[in-house]
Write a structure and sequence with these properties.
Elements (H helix, E strand, L loop, with lengths): L3 H6 L4 H10 L4 H35 L9 E2 L4 H32 L7 H4 L10 H28 L5 E5 L5 E6 L17 E2 H22 L25 E15 L2 E13 L5 E7 L2 H10 L13
Antiparallel strand pairs: 1-2, 2-3, 3-4, 5-6, 6-7
Length: about 300
């Protein structure tokens, strides 16, 4: 499943939503799987920014007691470790999204296509993929795809990718994780860090370029932008027998609204799907009681502000 509201909020993969709408049953599950990975990537990136901001707050608690003379220094906290642990699954998620693109093109056009971009990019001329799409794929691979894939392969198959971690104070306060300059090397002894490649910025850029590639391909294939709609797979329930009055699903929508810096409220609604004795289904919007809502709002912590520079 993917979070339609999250993708719509950032105007992400809107043409891909149109692509899904036109593919029809069967193949549309492949687009749904792609959008599930896209949701995962956005959640990982949001979490990275939240944890980065928490690390900044931790530094500021002790800032006046430190004698910082350099632009960066070694830093450690539980929030930093949590941030680092978002990177490996994000790399894997982006790799799966990358490898999904060629099979989606093949199924849409009804032609054979490579199962992965890494293995197929050098053999694109063997497939009946339109030239303008082939050119676009090659530009993406040369500008970002190959380098990103190198970092993912190191992380997955060779070494711990994250070995240089700092807190940066100038020109701005943030966690700074460095990726090696030369991901084509498979020996960590040969890694260099002269170029100061910011891992978080590279991962954001990799997501944005993958988004741009997917949307541009969808445009070439003639798909129009659409808002994503929420999916709930009811087929997993199997046969709904014997017929009886019962709840089949509950969809919950939760939003936080900030009135001011220290005043955040939580809004929650639900949508219930029930089966009736005659096998029909009914839908009912659900609200929570005022007492429960007050109790929930007492527990709400002011959310960490999103990093303003992200392209999400």
């Amino acid at each position: 499943m993917y979070i339609a509201e999250l993708l719509n909020a950032y105007n992400l993969f809107q043409r891909t939503a149109g692509w899904k709408k036109k593919l029809g049953q069967g193949n549309e599950k492949d687009i749904s799987a792609f959008l599930y990975r896209a949701t995962s990537a956005v959640v990982h990136l949001q979490r990275i920014h939240e944890l980065n901001n928490q690390c900044v707050q931790e530094y500021e608690l002790f800032e006046e007691q430190l004698q910082v003379k350099d632009d960066r220094f070694v830093f450690h906290s539980m929030n930093l470790v949590a941030l680092i642990n978002e990177i490996s699954p994000l790399l894997s998620t982006l790799k799966i999204m990358q490898d999904s693109i060629l099979p989606l093109i093949g199924k849409t056009l009804g032609i054979p296509a490579p199962s992965s971009m890494n293995g197929g990019i050098k053999k694109l001329h063997r497939y009946n993929i339109p030239q303008n799409i082939r050119d676009m794929l090659l530009r993406y691979w040369q500008s970002n795809g190959l380098r990103f894939r190198g970092y993912r392969d190191i992380d997955q198959h060779f070494h711990n990718l994250i070995d240089h971690v700092f807190f940066q104070v100038n020109p701005d306060k943030k966690v700074l994780i460095l990726f090696p300059d030369n991901p084509e090397e498979k020996s960590s002894d040969k890694f260099t860090y002269v170029k100061n490649i910011n891992a978080i910025e590279l991962l954001e850029s990799s997501f944005n370029k993958l988004h741009e590639l997917t949307e541009n391909i969808a445009a070439i294939l003639g798909f129009q932008p659409n808002n994503h709609s929420t999916e709930v797979r009811m087929d997993q329930l199997g046969e709904l027998t014997p017929p009886q009055e019962r709840t089949l699903s509950l969809m919950v929508e939760k939003k936080t609204r900030r009135k001011d810096k220290n005043n955040v409220t939580l809004e929650i609604t639900g949508l219930k799907m029930n089966q009736k004795k005659d096998m029909r289904v009914s839908f009912q919007k659900l609200l929570i009681s005022e007492d429960k809502l007050k109790e929930l709002n007492r527990r709400v912590q002011p959310p960490i502000e999103q990093n303003k520079t992200t392209n999400l």
